[in-house]
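Appendix B. Chain record.
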Amino acid sequence: MSQPVVHITNLILKYHHKPVLQDLNWIINPGENWLLRGTSGSGKTSLAKAIAGLVPFQGTLSMHFDEQSKLPAVAHYVANWFQFTDLEGQSNFYYQQRYNKQATETTATVKAELEDYGKKHQLQFSDAEKLVAALGFSELLHSTLIQLSSGEHKKLQLVRALWLRPQLLIIDQPYNGLDKLSRHHLNTLLEEISAAGTQLILISNDRELPPSIHRFAEIKDGQLYEIAADKHVSHLDETVNRPIPSFLNETPAISGDSVIKMVDVNISYGDKKVLKNINWEVKAGEKWLLQGHNGSGKSTLLSLITGDHPQAYANNFYLFGNKRGSGESIWDIKKRMGLISPELHWYFDASATVRQTILSGFFDSSGLFCEPDYTKKTQADELISYLGLDEYKDVLVNQLPLGKQRLALLGRTIVKNPELLILDEPCQGLDQQQTQYFNRLVDELCKNGTTLIYVGHFESQLPACIEKRILLENGEVKSVENILESVSQ
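Structure tokens predicted for this chain:
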């Protein structure tokens, strides 16, 4: 009988000195492809990094690769998101920097990044081009890394991993940020490399999986449990439906009937047109779903609304009843809205605690740089309790599991009870329980007159309050509709 590819015995692993995995055992035999799931903070990512040799642990973990295989004898780990540096090796980016021309000149292009990766691993670039085309990524080869959206960063990670074709491929949240068509294409590519000999471990709570995934496991209380094939879709426990903090029950200040109005808005980078003749009006209290394939222009459209894109001034564009460029500052705009996005998460101040992170939402800053008054502190503490983060309130955000980091940033987004909420893929990194809990909170907030723009690709991760949808395609408005049935985009 052949040896297991991975044999783990009594593995003990700590995350920032806190025990996460305790005496965990797992055997992965040749030919097995696994789905690994569990709640946020259960230790999925830590286990994956241990298998890939990226973090220390106690216990026994042995690897046995096929010496006859032509595939690289490695366990390759693809992280939840792509962390990159500029051409000088620096990674201290800030949120608005991707719209700064100088910043785009100091970060590598997608093509240069892939060429460098190919040289490092002695790969043929023509093979990468096939993967780039299969994931609908070809038009972005000459874009710089800092200009990419979260879904586009995920595609770059996936192209590199699929190009390498290791004997064991571990992908953390493979579908984050990907539209429905891209998820379908990814599953096709995963099937192809599995048939060619690559074994897979996917860390995901999503239901869309390649057919080759046939073993299922869950981490719970530091242990790994195998799950039957027909039981791998988790069932949500009943959550305690606590009332939201009283200060969030107040109707937010409303500036007028129209919150956003765009008239023939166009955005271009050189000869490339990113947004084309956008006409859209969002009235006070409306709840919108913004959708479109990766690269359709969603991130650029949102950057106009948040005041981060400089080309807003060159367009016929109104926010809260005022034409952009009529004298209001970016801070006048931001004080009326709350924003969460994968990009804001990437660039947020890593030295802030959970409490400081949530308090910073009152000041629209990346971190806390002034002393809040008693009322603000009290409201932040109420929200921390509501989100179940009491035991972490004095912990640095970057020391928390990804799901709890995102909860802290979601708290930051809503703490000032803003007139406009912009939630761009807000549930990335949350487990199903946290997603359900947060969307209930969004529904409650929107009962009080909050205006909502929600970006989401997964039908199962949408709040019930959404009533309208705008769909972008290649930078243009493809459709605007009332939502009467669940969307499937």
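Further analysis of this model is presented in Appendix C.
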